[in-house]
Amino acid sequence: MPLLLLLALALSSLLLAIRVGSVTMSSSDIWAALTGSGSSLHQTLIMDLRLPRALAAFATGGLLAVAGALMQVLLRNPLADPYILGLSSGAAVGALMAMIFGLGAALVSGSAFIGAVVSATLVFSLANGRGSWTPTRLLLTGVIISSGWSALVTFMLAVGPTDKLPGMLYWLMGDLAYSRSPWPALTVLLAICLLLMPLGRSLNVLARGPLQAAALGVPVKQMEWGIYIIASILTAFAVTTAGSIGFVGLIIPHMLRLVLGNDQRIILPAAALAGGSLLTLADTLARTIIAPQQLPAGVITAMIGVPTFLYLLRRSQ
């Protein structure tokens, strides 16, 4: 039942994103455009502009929420999020470097993905060292690496060309205006969710601690490696698609656990639907609230996430 409600919310958010804009369209106009019988203006607005952007927002939100849920299981910390291990900062370094050299949008996205993968590899290698790693060691390593990347980002903003600063800042704030095809991110989101569903029971046991998981026959180290790799891939695709968008991967899994419990077989698909819906609605608000100008979607998620997080923190006390 909760998943059906979230599915309805996801479809409603996508429909609202397609319908609302500089030209408001009715449901009949949308249906005609989707079936190819509408006017050329409506078909262009929906098929070339609004639908790809809405799907990119949904995919990005779903990727971040699922990655956040996995990171919270891996670190056994309900306040962990996908960016806590420096993946966002590493992607930012790659993207901004490509922007400084004047590379195209595709190369900027590719550089961001490479930066995220390099950061993930660096954090895990340093945290592992010559022995096994612990969640605390992984977390501290990620924080240090993230601080180093952030310093490099600040340096590039200080010395970068003035004409490129607006685009660099918008990327750092999370902007879907220049997102490319949403299909790679959607494909990764669907594939990862299908892959994780059979592992729901093992994730539930692992969330209770490594000793209990090992006693129940769960291969702890392999599971932890797998979770970290999958969360890194999800975050890398999300950052590549929309830049750095905060709070989605932190707030959504936390709220779902308060409402639905700790069963990962429900939390993971629910996080994909709820995270996608949140970012789709946030992006719709970002491009309409001060139209014809647009805000970065990351600004809206931060404005929503900060008071929500404070409310959850007060409630937990």
From TrEMBL:
Gene3D superfamilies: ABC transporter involved in vitamin B12 uptake, BtuC. Keywords: Cell membrane, Membrane, Transmembrane, Transmembrane helix, Transport. The chain crosses the membrane at residues 56-75, 107-126, 138-161, 181-199, 225-252, 294-313. InterPro entries: ABC_BtuC-like (IPR037294), ABC_transptr_permease_BtuC (IPR000522). It comes from the Bacteria. Pfam families: FecCD. It is found in: Cell membrane. Its main location: membrane. It is a multi-pass membrane protein. Belongs to the binding-protein-dependent transport system permease family. FecCD subfamily. This is Iron ABC transporter permease. It comes from Spongiibacter thalassae.
